Amino acid sequence: IANRPQSLTIFCAGEEADLKIELELKGLEAATKTVGAEKADTAMSRALARISGPLRSAALREIRAKYNLPRSERVKDAVKIYKGYRPAKLTIATRGKTPGLHHYAGKQTKTGVSVLVRRDRGRKKLRHAFLAPGAGGKGLGLWHREGAKVLPSKGRYAGTGIKRQPLTRLFGPDIVGMMKKFGVGKIREVLVLRWDKEFDRELKWLLK
Questions:
Q1: Which of 170, 148, 167, 171 lies closest to 156 in space, CA to CA?
Q2: pTM score, whole prediction
Q3: pLDDT recorded at residue 183
Q4: What value does the CA radius of gyration of the chain take, rounded to a whole number of Å?
Q5: What is the Cα–Cα distance from 189 to 182, expressed in whole angstroms?
Q6: What is d(CA 16, CA 195) in angstroms, rounded to the nearest whole number?
Q7: Alpha-carbon distance 65 to 100, whole Å?
């Protein structure tokens, strides 16, 4: 009776940093004819609720396997699930701040800082970079100087006439990008494997 969802609708909403993945259910006419529209929708809603956790977990595992983010909460808290009923709908929304590059196992060396972003690509050395707190001593960051030299308006060199390159804080890949690159494919894979089984289970329960 069950027909698996044929596609995932992926779109950005609001800011560029927001990603929403909606499961688009198609081809369920057979189920509707068998149990009626209301029960078919109930079965879809219950099946989506059952599968939502495994879909999210699979995407998070795939991201953590690729990226060296030691604080799993940073990714975990950025991926939320929203369920809709009548019509049945499941939205997996991803949003969050881009992690600073120092979160990727940043290590200060004599010549700069080394980081490990992708687990399969080894450590990368950033010459002349350094680890230091941000403005007001809040939060560690990875910094380096780049661009044309200018006269500083703040700090120890302000008013001295000595030009310095602007100080720039470096960030790693954004979490939304991680989800687009690796999480979406894993969600589609798990959905194809499990949907028929979960939907059939709910239909049989309703037909008891």
A1: 167
A2: 0.75
A3: 87
A4: 24
A5: 11
A6: 30
A7: 19
Query: Phi-psi bin for 124: left (phi > 0), alpha (psi -120 to 50), beta?
Result: beta
**Among 175, 181, 67, which Cα is nearest to 119's?**
67
Residue 97 has which token pair? 């701040």
Q: Where does 4-139 show beta strands of DSSP type E? A: 7-12, 19-24, 79-84, 89-94, 107-108, 112-115, 124-127, 130-133
CA dist 105 and 116 (Å) reads 6
On the 0-12 / 13-18 / 19+ scale of CB atoms within 10 A, 152 is middle
What is the residue-level pLDDT of the chain in tens, covering all 208 positions?
334 444 445 444 444 445 666 665 554 666 666 677 777 778 888 888 888 889 889 989 999 999 998 666 677 778 888 777 666 777 788 877 788 999 999 999 999 999 999 999 999 999 989 999 876 666 789 999 887 888 878 777 788 888 888 888 999 998 888 888 898 888 888 888 888 888 888 888 877 7
Dihedral pair phi/psi, residue 88, rounded to 5°: -70, 135
Residue at token pair 């006419």: 29
Contacts of 138 (CB under 8 A, 6+ apart): none
The amino acid at residue 58 is: A
